[in-house]
Design a protein that fits this description.
This protein is mostly helical. The protein is about 75% helix and about 0% strand. A two-stranded antiparallel ribbon has the order 1-2. Helix 5 (about 135-150) runs antiparallel to helix 6. It starts with a helix and ends with a helix.
Length: about 210
């Protein structure tokens, strides 16, 4: 019962945070972009590349393999589950953004949500209409949450990188503040749920001697 109440409270808080983010979109977006110098822009670009799911997946799988080879099978199992859950959280966000059709801040099309079609053409997968929610942010938020369930110190360290990555997506004019906020809520929620779902169902197979 307590767990159900916790999920409900998080859902309510998450929805409220997303609504607030939409209200603050213009203010936050302008502040972060106008105050980003060239050096900050280059740093943001670097963070975005590192925060891409492909880079994180390669690094994560390397750590999982290293732990497994060193005989730390239980930890390697937990880290693998955390990695998979975080990646799936980001992937699901990417599917959602393909359906919402929200324009990116840099789009030449009037800002809005256009769904699957616009101007008589399918816009699924078009970069210009792939803003909401942020795939980068959902992935790093999901990984932060799943790492929190494994080792809180790891999560605290990675969480700093996750926040920086979320900032980079706004600074690079790729996403609105609400895109990032919604992705963070989604990533945390889905990442935690998937970790709980996968952890017990894969333990016997992965940790067996």
């Amino acid at each position: 019962m307590l767990q159900k109440k916790s999920w409900l409270l998080f859902a309510v808080f998450g929805i409220a945070a997303i609504v607030a983010a939409f209200v603050l979109d213009g203010v936050v977006d302008d502040f972060l972009r106008l105050n980003a110098k060239q050096s900050a822009y280059q740093f943001a670009a670097c963070l975005s590349k590192i925060g891409d799911w492909t880079t994180l997946l390669v690094i994560g799988l390397g750590l999982v393999l290293l732990l497994h080879l060193r005989g730390r099978r239980e930890m390697s199992h937990l880290l693998l589950v955390a990695l998979v859950a975080g990646m799936l959280a980001g992937f699901s966000a990417t599917i959602i953004r393909s359906c919402t059709g929200r324009t990116r801040p840099s789009s030449h099309t009037p800002q809005g949500f256009y769904g699957l079609r616009h101007g008589g053409h399918w816009i699924v997968g078009k970069y210009e209409f792939g803003a909401f929610p942020s795939g980068h942010t959902a992935t790093v938020a999901g990984l932060t949450m799943t790492l929190w369930l494994v080792r809180r110190r790891w999560a605290a360290a990675f969480g700093i990188f996750a926040v920086a990555t979320a900032w980079s997506r706004i600074a690079l004019n790729c996403h609105h503040f609400s895109d990032v906020a919604a992705a963070a809520v989604w990533g945390i929620f889905v990442g935690a749920w998937l970790f709980r779902f996968l952890e017990s169902r894969t333990k016997s197979f992965f940790v067996r001697t």
